[in-house]
Amino acid sequence: MAQALALARLLSRRALTLERVALRASPRVVPPLVSALQRSRCLCGSADTPLPAGWKSATAPDGRTYYYRPGSQGTQWDRPTTDAAAHAAQDTLRDVFAAFEEARGATTDFFEPQLKDGELVLDLGPKGQYSLSQVAGQQQLMLFSPISGPQMYRFDADNGWWANELDGHLLNDLLVREIMHITSVYLNL
Question: What residues pair up with 65 in beta bridges, in sequence order?
Fold first, then answer.
């Protein structure tokens, strides 16, 4: 298993290197059309800080550098910072909370979700409690589960998901599976 994971990482790095070479050799990337909304969401950083995971840079015909995420429609002139993962964490907490709220009506068991101060808690009464929060100063989410214990997840911006750092399983998949096991309620994640 460890050898397969190491091979997958190596192949992924090699594919990214080939993609960078292709981007430099081909004018297929279109310069950005930045709306006021995109600019208002952008967080700027200095040129000497690394780009967040999943972000690429390219040069427009006029010589200016712009930034984009492959597979997305958005581009921007302002350099993104690692705070992109923080935004993804907040979006994920809100999405999971919404799924918990939706699932709440499907059970007669104790099922109390609460989102407060950047921490999501799902209290299942005697069946246990889930807690999901962003790790301060890190680009990670920490899940405490009554079934699988503590789990750390890192955001994969290329795919838009949170993957476990040890075995690569996805946060949403684990939550759907475990909540279904404990409560017989399906989470729409």
Answer: 59
